[in-house]
Design a protein that fits this description.
CATH class: Alpha Beta
Structural class: alpha+beta
Helix content: 25-40%
Shape: globular
CATH architecture: 3-Layer(aba) Sandwich
Order of helices and strands: EHHHEEHEHEHEE
CATH topology: Aminopeptidase
Length: 188
């Protein structure tokens, strides 16, 4: 498998045909630790089916390199999720036109190869094209998830706040860092 810099990352929309693979990925210990997600077919349908159908505006993508699927990245606007704006308000302003992302590299043999950063960079670049009014991308990360916030830093996100937020997995506590990347001036 080449390094991330040697081959482009492809992103394709999640489909129901991916649900079995997604269930396996969500059960991987390094993913389950942070995503804390049910993996039954019913749970996958309940939580991801609406995005596949378009009734949930979150855009979920499967990332691949040279035809091999390796991770998931999703994006959504704060405007479509006003509860996120309210939750972040004590720490940082999240404009409605801004987006947030969630991500993971699922395949254990592809960890620590730069693929997470390449996947996120690919989505960030696409976001500036796809959402011309988006001023920034704001991402809260559990302070305990060093790998997650370090990958954001490698892509160019800056830590802009820290404080308590509701965790995805209660065992990690409420301490979070909030990262932000602004639309490049050349694209304004």
């Amino acid at each position: 498998m080449p390094a991330a810099a040697d081959a482009p990352i492809a992103l394709r929309r999640l489909s129901r045909a991916d649900f079995a693979m997604l269930g396996r990925w969500l059960a991987e210990p390094h993913v389950a630790r942070w995503w804390n997600h049910e993996t039954t077919p019913e749970a996958l349908e309940r939580d991801f089916g609406p995005s596949v159908d378009g009734s949930d505006t979150a855009e979920i993508y499967i990332a691949s390199i040279e035809g091999r699927d390796f991770g998931l990245v999703q994006r959504y606007t704060f405007e479509d999720n006003p509860g996120y704006i309210e939750e972040l308000a004590p720490l940082v302003e999240a404009p409605g036109e801004a987006l947030s992302i969630d991500y993971f590299v699922a395949e254990p043999d592809l960890l620590r190869r730069g693929l997470g950063a390449a996947m996120i960079r690919t989505l960030v670049d696409a976001t500036w094209r796809d959402y011309p009014a988006a001023p920034c991308i704001v991402v809260p990360v559990s302070a305990a998830n060093t790998a997650s916030f370090r990958v954001l830093e490698r892509v160019g996100f800056i830590r802009v706040a820290e404080g308590p937020l509701t965790p995805d997995n209660p065992v990690h506590g409420t301490a979070h860092f909030v990262y932000r990347i602004d639309r490049p001036r050349t694209l304004r």
